[in-house]
Structures are given as structure tokens and as C-alpha cells.
Design goal:
The chain has 301 residues and is α+β, with helices and mostly antiparallel strands. It has one domain (13-26, 42-165, 194-236, 246-255, 272-301): Jelly Rolls (Sandwich). It is built from eight helices and twelve strands. The protein has helices spanning 43-52, 63-79, 102-105, 107-113, 116-126, 153-161, 207-210, 221-231; strands spanning 19-22, 54-57, 87-89, 96-100, 130-138, 148-152, 168-174, 186-187, 194-197, 243-247, 251-254, 265-272. The protein has a seven-stranded antiparallel sheet. It has a three-stranded antiparallel sheet with strand order 6-11-8. A two-stranded antiparallel sheet has the order 1-9. The longest helix is centred in the N-terminal third of the chain and has 17 residues, at 63-79. The chain is globular, with a radius of gyration of 18 Å. The two termini are 35 Å apart. The site of ligand 6CS has 9 residues, from strand 5, strand 6 and helix 6.
């Protein structure tokens, strides 16, 4: 039985026509009282996040911290001997594209996922206790880093992982420079306020393909034109240590990296403990735990 047997406002991939509907969830779940959160956003920045769907901070981590995190990330990639759980290889080369679940499998990145500079903002935006739904390093290696086509993470996490509502936030921490040449993350401001129902039934074991090149659970070109007409495209750039907090439903993507500079970013996804994953809302079995934690482990405040 899937969760689709109940009235699901965010159904997708079941009809032949793409459709844009209004979001049915708040963006900001807090009550404005960021009591005890040393790293809380100002009221003005919260309003900006509600309006645009993202908040970009340069130098949230120091250059030295970013250098040491990058070296740890490259160390992990160098240890990869072949296809293994949680490791995704770039299509067309044998270079590492992503490594998942580093918040559980690596002490250094576990500490980052628990860092109050990230957790305080997640708790503030999501209005309470949070846990890590997913973590990953996207290496986007020099010359070989391929694109991530436009998508809403929430559409995938709802349909394929069973995330009920839009009450999760991602943070991307730049471990290298993110510049106009090396495939920076691109976001569509205000796209988080629309939910795009995608066309095309989810293939079996879809993640084995989608993490390399996503072709299902992606918006139609008409839907993308409409979202970009309304909000434009922004590619927040910054030095190593910059951080981009973005709503789970914000439309985003990135181009391939033709430059000699890698674009290595660490992603942590915080989900509200009130929004724990249930049975997927699509018609496939849940994806592996390295993509979606199924046990809620609240991060201590
Ligand atoms: O399917 C997922 O969960 C992953 N795919 C993308 C393109 N972004 C979110 C996440 O890393
Ligand atoms: Fe994504």
C-alpha cells in the first residue's frame, strides 16, 4: 500500500500532462521566536527566505575549515575502488560524482551536520527539532563533472521516499570556489511556491539512473519557462566556506563543469521530526537508506 490511497496534494508522475499547482505548506514553520538559537537568521533574512526560497551566506565556514573539509572529501573519493553503496560514478568516466550518507559514515562530516551554524537555521526555519534526511558530497570534478538537470528535491523525496510535506531545508556548503566557469548551483527564485507535477512513471530502481542523469521527476520545458519567466535564475557564487540554504521545493540544477577547477559542495538535508518519511507516495518501494534515512535521530538543540 502506498500513501497515495489518501488524498495527496503533491501527487506526480501519474498523468500525461505537466501541471503547476500552488504550494500547500508554509515556507517558514517557526513562530519567529528564535530563542536560544545563536546562529538564527534575522527577521529580514527569514522574510527573504520565505519570498525567494533560499538564503546565501559567504564565509559561514572559515577558509581553513573549508580546506580541511575539502581534503577529507577528496580522501573519501580516493578510497573508492568501484561501484559501492552510496557512491555514484559520473556517466562516461570513472570519476566519483557523489558520495552519500557521510553524516553517518564519516566523523568529520557528522560534526558538520551537527554544527550549530547549520542546525540553528534549520531549526528556526522548520520550527523545531530536526534530523538529517540525507547528506552527500557532489564533487562535480574538473572537466568530467556532468550536469544535474532542473528538479525539485521535494518532488523526488515525496514520490520516491515518502516525505509527506514541504518541511525540509537543504544547505550546500562550498568546499571549493563556486564560480561562473565550474558549474555553480543555479536556483529559480520563488519557484518553491509552485509544485510541478512531472510526467512519466517512475522506472524500477530509478535511483540507479537518476543520480547519474535524472530524466524522470523533472519539470517540463514549458513549466521551466514559466518558473524562470516569473523568478529568473540566480547562481549564488562564493568562496570556499560559503553556504546556500534552500527550501526542499526550490527548483535548481547545475551545468556540467568544463573548467579545470572542481566544484565540490557538501549538502546536508534537514527534515522536521514532524515530517518523517512514510510509505512513498509513488508506486515503487522505498529507496535505500543512504538516500533517505528512515529512522528519526533528532539532532540535540
Ligand atoms: O534523488 C535525490 O535524493 C538526489 N537527487 C538530486 C538531483 N538532488 C537531491 C538528491 O541529491
Ligand atoms: Fe537536488
Amino acid at each position: 500500500m502506498t500513501s497515495q490511497t489518501i488524498a495527496d496534494p503533491y501527487w506526480s508522475r501519474t498523468q500525461s500532462q505537466s501541471e503547476a499547482v500552488n504550494r500547500e505548506d508554509p515556507v517558514f514553520w517557526g513562530d519567529g521566536a528564535a530563542v536560544g538559537l545563536d546562529n538564527a537568521l534575522t527577521t529580514e533574512l527569514v522574510k527573504q527566505f520565505e519570498r525567494d526560497g533560499f538564503h546565501h551566506r559567504t564565509s559561514l565556514f572559515t577558509a581553513d575549515e573549508a580546506t580541511s573539509l575539502l581534503s577529507e572529501a577528496n580522501c573519501l573519493a580516493a578510497q573508492v575502488k568501484g561501484p559501492e553503496h552510496g557512491v555514484v560514478i559520473e556517466p562516461g568516466s570513472n570519476v566519483v560524482r557523489s558520495i552519500f550518507r557521510i553524516h553517518r559514515n564519516n566523523e568529520v562530516f557528522r560534526a558538520v551536520a551537527n554544527d550549530k551554524r547549520l542546525v540553528d537555521v534549520a531549526r528556526q526555519l522548520l520550527g523545531g527539532d530536526v534530523y538529517v534526511h540525507q547528506s552527500r558530497i557532489n564533487f562535480k570534478p574538473a572537466f568530467d563533472g556532468k550536469e544535474f538537470f532542473w528538479h525539485s528535491d521535494f518532488e523526488t523525496w515525496h514520490i520516491e521516499d515518502g516525505m509527506p510535506r514541504m518541511r525540509a531545508v537543504s544547505v550546500s556548503v562550498s568546499l571549493t570556489d563556486n564560480n561562473e566557469f565550474n558549474g555553480p548551483l543555479m536556483v529559480v527564485p520563488r519557484s518553491h511556491l509552485k509544485y510541478i507535477r512531472c510526467v512519466g512513471a517512475t522506472p524500477e530502481n530509478h535511483h540507479e539512473q537518476s543520480l547519474k542523469k535524472q530524466e524522470y521527476g523533472v519539470p517540463s520545458r514549458e513549466a521551466m519557462c514559466q518558473l524562470v519567466d516569473e523568478g529568473g535564475i540566480v547562481a549564488p557564487k562564493g568562496d570556499p566556506g560559503s553556504a546556500l540554504f534552500f527550501d526542499c521545493n526550490l527548483m535548481h540544477g547545475s551545468s556540467g563543469n568544463l573548467s579545470p577547477y572542481p566544484r565540490t559542495n557538501l549538502f546536508v538535508v534537514y527534515n522536521s521530526v514532524e515530517n518523517a518519511t512514510v510509505a512513498p507516495f509513488g508506486n515503487r518501494p522505498p529507496r535505500p537508506k543512504y538516500l533517505a534515512e528512515r529512522e528519526v535521530r533528532p539532532i540535540p538543540a
